[in-house]
Amino acid sequence: MTVSFERIAVVGAGEWGTALANCTARAGREVTLWARDPAAVADMMATRVSPRLPGVRLDERIAATGAIADLANAQAVLLVVPAQDLRAAASGLAKQIAKGIPVIACAKGIERGTHKFMTEVIAETLPNATPAILSGPSFAGDVARGLPTAVTLACADEAVAQALARALGSPTFRPYHTSDVRGVEIGGAAKNVLAIAAGIVEGRKLGASATAALVTRGFAELARFGRAYGARSETLIGLSGLGDLILTCSSPQSRNFSLGIALGEGRAAEGKLAEGAFTASALAEMAAEKSVEMPIAVAIAAVLDGRLSIDQAIESLLTRPFRAE
Prior knowledge:
Elements (H helix, E strand, L loop, with lengths): L6 E5 L3 H12 L3 E5 L3 H10 L14 E4 L10 E4 L6 H6 L10 E4 L12 H8 L4 E6 L4 H5 L4 E7 L2 H11 L4 E6 L2 H23 L4 H21 L4 H4 L2 H10 L6 H11 L9 H15 L5 H10 L5 H9 L7
Parallel strand pairs: 1-2, 1-4, 2-3, 4-5, 5-6, 7-8
Antiparallel strand pairs: 6-7
Helix pairs in contact: 7-8, 7-10, 7-11, 7-12, 7-13, 12-13, 13-14
């Protein structure tokens, strides 16, 4: 049986949601973009421009709406809201989603307090849906403008993952499919925390050698955590793990990297949400539960929680005992 997804809803009209709506429309799908703010919906429909992505026109195949009932005929849903808001957003879809409809989390994080991954939150709040996850090295502006990007799409049902990848894919947006849901989720969540650390290195002007060491040892932490929680090694070294880590630890376009730079320079971070700031404590707590050694992630969690200063965190990492690699 061939699974086809022609009508796709995008919940969340921020930068990433708008970018995914644009690239999904470019793939030839009928797209409904839901936004919470009625004024923003009216403005987008009138101007075909998103206030969150200035200079990027909305594809003509996108219909913006503020009515959740307009999503009822969607054959798949991209849930593009911050990780800590995903539970509330998913709950709001409960009366609109038909049985078996794929709901694809597009946030990279772990829910604080519950330690739930995004597909677990979807499974709890939308038990009749088919949870999936989209993650990988991608910036909203690049995707919205049609610059070449490759990501990973995971669903426990490999046939659904493959069909979704076909539905969303285009020559400039290439989703690779897998059934390793947990591996994709872990890569996206952990790399955000490590990107904050890389930003601190940049902000403190510790040098390119320190950055290379940080990213390499950070990936070792990510891989240890992934293995402990059932991820496949090939997923962790793929786009949604190592690939996303490389991108996020190397560009100020990354909100997490930018947050780290601000912390390293001793100034307040500017405006935009950095998912890693919310995930860090959950990641450190989950590592402790499985006795996984993650000194970088634990140090970042302590800095963000005010338990360590930047200098103390750096000293704690530099004075660790020498050991075999």
